[in-house]
Structure formats: structure tokens, C-alpha cells
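Supplementary Methods. Inverse-folding protocol.

Structures were first reduced to a C-alpha cell string of length 300. This string, shown here, constituted the complete conditioning input.
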């Protein structure tokens, strides 16, 4: 049986298989250089692990994970009064290449060669993710629950486990691959830096879309000029920042009507529209049905 997260001292429980590994850690003080061999997933269950990779800081807290490939170098630090508990999974480049080779993507125009090169190159986007936002994150949550329940046996970790992890990495990274590819050709570090800035602008919109927003304010948050932000956002996400704001407001307005049965005027106000007329017109254009009809029982 796998015993997860000893409370005393520093513990690393390792399962290795065909160049891949699964590590359960419980650490109070830990300082080590990081050089990923293949793909590394650093998932924190309790506490915080602090990474410095390729010149960027990644404080990974409970429920977050860091995804890197073997172009990443840096260090990790754990220094807490209570043990920090986490899971690290290492996937060999051979396994990723094998899964990519058999991956069928009829929805894209990209060749497998392009996708394969992305995963093993400096263009790969090392980043932190929330476990509720990705397929891999959801799997990590399930894995943690299974181990904590005492149902996980060490001999149950097979090649299938690592194939599943590789598949979920690829599924989650396909949109990132498309987004990065949409940024005009520049050096890998520059392209990733621009992508991070556009993401920062999008995150700002996600947090504040109910408020009056301007391209200038969002671009400042992303540390880009207005036009540069507008152009990159549209290239990456396939819509302008203003279109994205309206989309967020309409989807939020719909959720208000669906979940709380508020009046249309309340939904309009809470979702950031200036008035009910503007909201109703945009709602019908986007969903094909006016909000008043939606309230009467239409679902789509």
C-alpha cells in the first residue's frame, strides 16, 4: 500500500517504471536544483513549494501544479513549519513521443511533427495550473483522494497510469500550442513572455468583466501597448478583447437567469451591461433567444 504524506521529517516515496516515476513527498525543509528529465508535474496537496525556473518564479500552493519539460532549469525551495505535501510525476520524452505519434487530431491543421517538436523544444510553455481547470488537474485530485483513502497499491501503478498522464498533458496543451503558434515568429522566450502577458490581460478581464473596462486599462495590466495587446489577444484567442468581455458578461448573465431566476434587469446590471436594452439585444444575438423567453422556460 502507498502511504501518502508522512508528518515527520522529510519523506520521498518513489515508484519507478520504464523511465517514468511517481513520487509522493512530505517535506519541511528542502532546497534542490531542478533539471527536468522529460516532463515533470509538481503537484502540491498541502502547503507551498517555491520554484525558480528559466528566470521565472512559480509559488505553487495547494491545488496547483507546475508542468515543465526538460528545457527547464532552476531550483525548488520548501521551508515551512509544517510538512508540505505533494506529488511529482516524471514522464519520459519517449513516452510522450509515443503518445503523440498515435494522437489523432481531426480538429486541427497541425501536423504531428509540429506538435511533437513543440513538446520537446524551448517553445513548450512551462507554467502553473489550477487542478480544477485542466484534465490533468482533475486526475491529480482523483489520485490524491484514492491514495488518502488507503485504496492505492504500489503494484497498481502500471504503464497505463503513465500513458493516461501523457494523454492528459497533450489534451491540455493543445490549446496552448495553438495560442503560442498564433504569436508572430520570435524567439521562444519572447513568445512565451508575450503569451504570459496576454494571459495576464485575460485573467484581469475574467476577474473584472462586470466593471467598466477599457483596452488601455487591460493593456496596462498586461504591460503592453494598447494596440500590441489588442493585436496579440485577437491572434491568440480568436476574438478581440471587447468581444471577449461581452462573451463573459453574457455567459454570466445567462447563469444568473438560469440559477437564480432573477429579473432580466437585475441580470443586465450584475453582468456589467449599461441597461436592459443593451443586454437583451446582445443576449439574443449571442444565444439566439431573448432573455425574457429564456426566463419563460427555453433552455439551450
Amino acid at each position: 500500500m502507498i502511504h501518502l504524506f508522512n508528518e515527520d521529517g522529510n519523506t520521498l516515496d518513489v515508484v519507478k517504471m520504464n523511465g517514468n516515476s511517481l513520487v509522493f513527498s512530505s517535506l519541511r525543509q528542502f532546497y534542490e536544483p531542478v533539471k527536468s528529465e522529460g516532463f515533470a508535474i509538481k503537484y502540491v496537496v498541502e502547503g507551498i513549494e517555491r520554484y525558480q525556473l528559466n528566470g521565472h518564479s512559480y509559488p505553487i500552493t495547494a491545488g496547483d501544479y507546475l508542468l515543465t519539460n526538460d528545457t527547464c532549469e532552476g531550483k525548488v525551495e520548501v521551508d515551512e513549519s509544517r510538512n508540505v505535501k505533494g506529488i511529482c510525476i516524471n514522464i519520459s520524452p519517449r513516452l510522450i513521443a509515443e503518445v503523440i505519434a498515435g494522437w489523432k487530431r481531426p480538429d486541427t491543421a497541425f501536423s504531428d511533427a509540429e506538435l511533437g517538436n513543440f513538446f520537446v523544444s524551448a517553445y513548450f510553455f512551462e507554467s502553473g495550473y489550477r487542478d480544477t481547470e485542466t484534465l490533468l488537474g482533475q486526475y491529480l485530485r482523483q489520485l490524491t483522494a484514492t491514495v488518502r483513502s488507503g485504496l492505492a497499491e504500489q503494484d497498481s501503478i502500471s504503464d497505463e497510469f503513465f500513458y493516461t498522464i501523457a494523454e492528459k498533458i497533450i489534451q491540455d496543451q493543445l490549446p496552448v500550442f495553438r495560442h503560442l503558434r498564433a504569436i508572430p515568429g520570435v524567439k521562444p522566450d519572447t513568445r512565451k513572455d508575450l503569451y504570459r502577458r496576454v494571459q495576464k490581460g485575460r485573467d484581469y478581464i475574467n476577474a473584472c468583466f462586470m466593471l467598466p473596462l477599457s483596452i488601455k486599462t487591460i493593456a496596462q495590466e498586461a504591460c503592453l501597448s494598447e494596440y500590441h495587446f489588442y493585436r496579440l489577444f485577437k491572434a491568440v484567442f480568436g476574438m478581440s478583447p471587447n468581444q471577449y468581455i461581452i462573451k463573459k458578461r453574457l455567459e454570466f448573465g445567462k447563469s444568473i437567469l438560469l440559477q437564480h431566476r432573477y429579473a432580466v434587469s437585475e441580470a443586465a446590471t450584475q453582468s456589467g451591461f449599461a441597461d436592459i436594452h443593451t443586454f437583451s439585444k446582445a443576449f439574443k444575438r449571442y444565444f439566439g433567444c431573448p432573455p425574457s423567453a429564456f426566463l419563460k422556460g427555453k433552455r439551450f
